[in-house]
Specification:
The structure holds 2 protein chains of 2 kinds. Chain A is α/β, with parallel strands linked by helices. Chain A folds into 2 domains: about 5-30; about 45-125, no CATH class. Chain A has helices at about 5-30, 35, 45-50, 50-65, 75, 80-90, and strands at about 70, 95, 100-105, 115-120, 120-125. In chain A, α4 (about 50-65) packs across α6. The longest helix of chain A has 26 residues, at about 5-30. By secondary structure, chain B is mainly alpha-helical. Chain B has helices at about 5-25, 30-50, 55-70, 80-95, 115-125, 135-140, 145-155, 155-170, 180-200, 210-225, 225-245, 250-260, 265-275, 280-285, 290-295, 300-310, 315-330, 330-355, 360-385. In chain B, α2 (about 30-50) packs across α5 and α11 (about 225-245) runs antiparallel to α12. The longest helix of chain B has 27 residues, at about 360-385. Chain B starts with a helix and ends in a 9-residue tail after the last helix. The interface of A and B includes residues 14, 41, 42, 44 and 48 of A.
Chain lengths: ~130, ~400
């Protein structure tokens, strides 16, 4: 291939290279400048990654200094929320024998349980 | 020192440091040693940037942009959150690779090997706390060794086309915390290195010892990134065996194959550890025979797999590119080698999809486009390797 053609090819692929990066950044990444401003802070990006119920679960657990927690049937039946709460709250663990429960606010709170704290989306109770 | 020799050494060092990080965590070494190891890895990266800063500008720009996008991207998809970064978080808090023995949160596939989560965990340990964004760049940094060594094989415009191919096939998987893009790139490079060392008789790289070690690092990394890597390396050995058998050169290359097969040892240790602790795999532990036998006779299942797997647009584009290049520049031996890799892996994927314990449609819809990336990249990569833009094709 002649040097002239090689140069044209180089320019074409250089333009394509930047276009591809721009396309991925703009349409495929979910990029957010708010995250890039401080990617090293402890809570960076969580509001864009997780539903508010999951973020609140950590607040309730942290504030009440809970070691392990259990989840109500309402949360267990919602697989996505169940998994997110477990992984987001690690190293605090979900244990089925634990008597501190997280409930959905819209669930019926059992009379046998003692309310520890009411959140906007979740309740923390001892049963 | 010649630039290419330097890049070979940087590739080997960075690959080794990633593996050493995994081993150090596995052997419960202290945090200080882990931090020194990961700092050394970052220094190697900086050395690449600042030693002859004008050389290989494409890759330097590529990595800066990919890392910036990664640092501004939330982790919201299922695999990155529930598997990879959760594993990294567990390693970070438990300071161990083996704490998964308790099989806590089995939805996170505790049997998956943890090479990249171990790197992510060590990055978090540099900050001293867990964070949702920063450790994710480990997935982008893992691309560094294979992309750097590719510069030795593709020069100038071909390297630019190579980066364009990476962006086209791997795309967002470069920075979102998925492991599928890594599997694709490591398999492509592992295949090329296997071809150099065991198939191509007169290859100049065969004489350089460093390539044997780089190949070992890539093979080990491939198996420890994800379960598919184990299957892919096995496919690579089978196809290499057949090509050598066909050429009647098996006797000459058997020793190399045996030496290289030692790269299975780390993943076999990992699998043995999982077996001892009763940590199973969804696809293997559940009744495979029953699932296959209930689906194998229905031809519509084959059509569906064909539709999801082989009518993927990236696969078709790279297949067309590969076919045109190999039609124009004949290389029978390489063609057979790539064809065997592709054919055996696709055959394996058909078996895996037919035996899935999950809903058939769900399985295809959620995974087919990701797993076919490996073959798309392989075809594009070897098509590009065989493309001759100038008279000189290798350094």
């Amino acid at each position: 291939m002649s040097e002239k053609k090689l140069r044209a090819l180089r320019i074409f692929f250089l333009v394509l290279f930047f276009f591809q990066i721009f396309y991925i950044y703009q349409f495929r990444s979910g990029f957010n400048f708010k995250i890039l401003k401080n990617p090293f802070s402890q809570d960076s990006g969580i509001e864009f990654s997780l539903p508010p119920q999951v973020i609140e679960s950590k607040k309730l657990i942290k504030k009440n200094k809970i070691d392990n927690f259990n989840l109500s049937d309402g949360i267990k039946n919602n697989e996505a929320m169940y998994q997110r709460i477990i992984e987001f709250n690690y190293p605090i663990r979900f244990k089925t024998e634990e008597n501190i429960y997280l409930f959905l606010a819209k669930e019926n709170f059992s009379e046998k349980c003692e309310m520890l704290e009411k959140g906007e989306y979740l309740y923390l109770g001892k049963c | 020192m010649k630039l290419y020799n330097l890049y070979e050494k940087i590739t080997l060092t960075s690959s080794l440091l990633i593996f050493v990080n995994f081993v150090l965590i596995g052997l419960n070494f202290s945090g200080v040693i882990l931090k020194i190891n990961i700092l050394f890895f970052l220094i190697v990266l900086l050395f690449f940037y600042f030693y002859k800063p004008r050389e290989n500008l494409y890759l330097k720009i590529f990595f800066i942009l990919v890392l910036l996008i990664s640092l501004g991207t939330p982790t919201f998809e299922w695999d990155p959150r529930s598997i990879w970064l959760f594993h990294a978080k567990r390693i970070f808090y438990d300071n161990s690779l083996f704490s998964i023995a308790d099989n806590y949160a089995p939805f996170s596939h505790n049997d998956y090997p943890n090479l990249v989560p171990a790197l992510a965990s060590s990055l978090a340990s540099l900050m001293g706390y867990w964070n949702e964004v920063f450790p994710k760049i480990a997935f982008s940094l893992m691309f560094f060794p294979p992309l750097l060594i590719s510069y030795v094989f593709f020069k100038d415009v071909k390297y630019l086309i190579f980066l364009s191919l990476v962006l086209f096939v791997i795309g967002k998987y470069l920075f979102t915390g998925w492991a599928d893009g890594l599997i694709a790139v490591y398999f492509g490079l592992s295949s090329l290195l296997m071809y150099f060392l065991v198939i191509d008789e007169n290859n100049p790289y065969k004489k350089k010892k460093i390539y044997f070690f780089i190949t070992c690092c890539f093979f080990i990394s491939l198996t420890l990134i994800k379960n598919e890597g184990f299957a892919l390396l096995f496919v690579l050995f089978v196809s290499t065996f057949f090509v050598n058998f066909y050429k009647k050169k098996l006797k000459n290359n058997l020793r190399s194959l045996i030496y290289l097969s030692s790269c299975f040892i780390p993943v076999l240790f990992w699998k043995y550890f999982c077996y001892l602790n009763g940590i199973g795999n969804d696809y293997i532990n559940v009744d495979i025979i029953q699932n296959i036998s209930s689906r194998i006779t229905n031809y519509e299942n084959y059509l569906l797999i064909f539709y999801y797997l082989l009518l993927n647009e990236k696969f078709l584009y790279t297949l067309a590119f590969f076919s045109i290049i190999f039609w124009k520049y004949k290389n029978r031996e390489l063609l057979i080698f790539v064809f065997l890799n592709t054919f055996i892996y696709i055959l394996l994927l058909f078996v895996i999809f037919l035996s899935t314990p999950l809903d058939f449609y769900f399985q295809l819809d959620s995974t087919a486009a990701r797993v076919i990336k490996t073959i798309s990249f392989l075809l594009g990569f070897f098509g590009l390797y065989n493309l001759r833009l100038t008279k000189q094709t290798s350094h």
